[in-house]
Amino acid sequence: MSKLKQIKADLALLSVAFIWGITFVVVQDALSGIGPITSLV
Fold it and tell me: Could you report the per-residue pLDDT of 1-41, keeping only the tens digit for each?
């Protein structure tokens, strides 16, 4: 694998991990404002 492809692959993986982490925080914040029954319905 060439050096450029390796850098692109690493950046893509880092981007996906970052987005996944951000969405986890957003969902946790959104769910903190509603009760457990509301989330089940």
Answer: 699 999 999 999 999 999 999 998 888 888 888 877 776 76
For residue 14, give both structure tokens: 């880092």
SS (H, E, C) the chain: CCHHHHHHHHHHHHHHHHHHHHHHHHHHHHHHCCCHHHHHC
Q: Record the pTM.
A: 0.62
State the Cα–Cα distance between residues 10 and 23, nearest whole angstrom.
20
Note whether 3 and 11 are within 8 A (CB): no
